[in-house]
Queue: 4 jobs
Job 1
Amino acid sequence: MAIGTSAPELFTSLIGTTVTKNNIGLDTILGSAAFNLTFLIGVTALVTGKAAQLSKWPVTRDSLCYVVSVIAVYIVLSDHRVAWYESLILIILYGMYIVVMYFNSKLSTLVEKLSEDQTPDKLDEEEHTTLAAHKVDGYKSLDKVNGATPSLENNRSIQDTEKSNSTDKGPNKEDDDLLFDEIDSPLELPEKWWQRILWVLCLPIGLVLFITIPDCRKQKWRRFFIVTFITSIVWLSLLSYAMVWTFSVIGYTLHISDDVLSFAILGPATSIPDLVGSIVVARDGYWDMAVSNSIGSNVFELLLCLGGTFFISAFLPPFAKNLTVIMKENSVMIISVQLLLALAITMVAIIFSGWKLTRKVGFALVFCYVSFLTFEILYKIGILGPEGLPICELRY
């Protein structure tokens, strides 16, 4: 989930380094990391409006991996030069993160055995906790009878039970056809006036995507899911290129640094899929997945997006001669400290709330992001920093 929702950051980073040759890709990823860690988790808690009980292991696991990622990125970028082997180290670190996720269930069991928090009374209480499954608006939602949020292990058991029941009953083709028939067409005019305005604005791109991307949700296009995937990736790369190019021109025209635009606007904008995904799964009761998605996305962006981008760029002009990517001056040290500080604030807020994600925690995290963003902008434009950062160069 974290990889899929972070695809825009990957293409933005690649285009910013290889095409525009500025810090747009780097600052977009750093801005997205700050957005995911504070604002995303905070808004998810505010929108859902429920006090959710979080599992300790998933949050702690991803937080530790995130700390390692930030430290590794700072070490690599501290001299503003990224050799090919340094970028390869970042990629290897992400591979190690995948290994940890592969053995997650075994590690979770080991941590629970070593944990001193699991007293016999707590274990007995957890064993007698029952779950009730119900469906809301077509989505599967799991809630504990006593009001707490289900753990990932209980979620898996219920999913397995539902799968076995659905297998026994066999596929219901009539329900599938009914679901596919309810898919909205881009040519259908909405009822509300403000929806019609958005419909008119989005109609050109909506028609193009509707024509060029097979809708594999429909029965007749199901076997073309590979074509849907490939065309979606192609369109994502093209739109990312247009977005980076547009913001470069806007920055040059308005004399605004690329670092400011990418950190304050591009970073949050490319994290919209992460925000939507976290809200959806949180409403379904998968709060651990929502939080892990936000932190896991940061690990993917910092290690694989940056590492993969620098590794490819090192073998392309003008960096191919020395196999080293030269970065412009940036505030990577300050951003790294702030990212670690944001994680510390997030963890402290969650721990002091009893590992619950409440509305108070949500407001605190949103305020943290606003303060963090304000400070970074003031630093980049020279009010708090030594001098304003340069704008994009114009080349004919």
Job 2
Amino acid sequence: MIRSILLFGVIMLIGRITASELNIGLPPSEKFRIENKTECKMYQKNCFVKITSSYLITFANMKPDKSKIFEYKSIKKCSINDTKLKDCSKFKNFISPNKKLYLLDIKPKLVGRALLEFEYLIDNNSIVAKKIHNIVVKSPKRFIDIFQILYISFVSVLVSVIMGILLDLDSLIQIIKMPVPVLIGFVAQYLFMPLLTYAFINIFNLKPIEALALFIYGCSPGGVGSNNWTIIFNGDIDLSAILTFVSTMSSIVMMPLWFYTLGKKIYVKADIKIPLFKLIMNLLFTIIPCLLGLILAQKFPKLKLVLMKYAKKIIGFMVISFIALNLASKFYVFKLITWQQWVTGPLIPWTGFVIGAFLAWIANRPYKQIYTISIETGLQNVSIAFLIIMLNFESPDSDYALLPLIAVATITTIPLWFLFLFKKITSKTKTDHPKFLDYADEKQKNDLDQTENFIKLVKI
């Protein structure tokens, strides 16, 4: 008799410790029910994990494995008599005379995914059961979040229109006759940059979703920002506009080509696939406005001169407003950015500057073309990558995918700003007039002043 009691006690002790592994004493599914996952949104005041059970459940412990994603607040029991209570009334359809509703109140802290592990006793029994529950915290849908998507779409269209306006058809015909610089730019943009991005992704061992976002960026065409920097560094603005136009038109073939070949390894790991039709439609969102800009430039020839006059201010405003809007709407995302993302993202365009310059130098191109091809290779159209991710990825995947791209948009041009400041400091503060002006009449001096003013206007 004593042996039987001791043996029963040992069995109960083992059952208490290993119930979760052996499923001993776990309630039948019809008597205990919990959803597969609970979705919350950032800044949501009350987010509840709902459990319906005919068992009396006493929670013994709760362990969130990622405290930075959410915080456990309390547990509330709702019976048939509690349906008039504030929180219980919202879920009265889950309550019946034979079943009670348990609400686990959690507070979202950051976007992301986490596992909620809790232990509980059933009917005050001595057997402990464990459950692991998925918590998904998504980005909020506020006015500023919707405005951000609309603004990025607007910027992408405007940038493409500007790109088409800056293109000079006469220069395009000349470049076609001498296609070497365009071929160099194309090879740098669509051969070296995707391979370079793939290499950095593997070197820094990024997460699949972040790697996929960077690969999309690495396969993107050049952006209108390169045209602005080409003007600042006295590069070949016609070549810059042509390279941007060619890479943009080619993106409808080259981006899907890379995405569904080398990129397949990345999006399979990320468990995200963008349909080919959807990707092409996203790219047409950039290509069609570019062609529209080309038509506008032909109908209104003076539009290019006006645009070049205000190009620096327009691009500057778009860049600053783009960064400011991201800071305002997704400030919490900066808490998630790691040093690998701060390094890997900008390292791709910075290395692109070097590759573009090296290829142009090897091909014995003039210095103006070297500057132009270098800038065009490094400064890719990050707004296209932003748009593809925001239109095709769901939160929180889209939030984590944007992390390295935010780093790209924020600090990519820092080396160019340093070079620009160095150029300003080392250049002469005042242009010396030729000696013949000492003997020139007033009309000749005025003609020279007007020429210099026009040059300065174009540079601005």
Job 3
Amino acid sequence: AVVSTQSTGEAEQAPPEACPVEETPAPAPDIKNWESCESADVMLADLGADKIKNILSEMGLKCGGTPIARAERLFSVRNLSKEEIPPSLFATSGKGRKRKVAEFVDR
């Protein structure tokens, strides 16, 4: 709020009013443990595409493709140890793709 002072004629800013602060944090959304989901469709509906992508990335797995493909990939490894996960599901370093792009550009 702007307050006018009569002595100087200049406008001054009034001190901001204290905003009410909520003491209790908002409850976290109720998300099932992803390992207990009944299907990839349920997993996608419960977690959402971004959360599934983050989980895959944190596990070092490929995280590209459509949201349902990512959900199916995560669902397929839900009860496996890291040693039991097929090597084809792990993300690569990306060097192979750059090499293929360079070969394509050089043609």
Job 4
Amino acid sequence: IRPGRVDRRFLLDLASHAQITKMYANFFRDHMTSAATLAAILEAIPSKTVTPAQLQGWFIHHMDSQGEDMLADAPRFLADCLAEAARTDEEGSKVEEDEDDDDKDKEKVD
């Protein structure tokens, strides 16, 4: 990116437990939820394993569910998120390999 073209830079990282807690409070503030449900969610979803976007989708999916339904779905949700991250890592590695191959081809031509 050329200098002067970006005013701010933001790190879009995986969600920490503090972020999960804040998002949970925002999504479920009008619902009867318990601290025990939040604690169980934090235990089921380790810090820095899911993106805020994935978490948002999961919370939206469970907006009208009972806390037990969300907790029962947590292992599947986490497994899906980890599988998606693994696929993304593999695709990223493939792209990097392709770029390296292009550089080698350029060196041969020069």
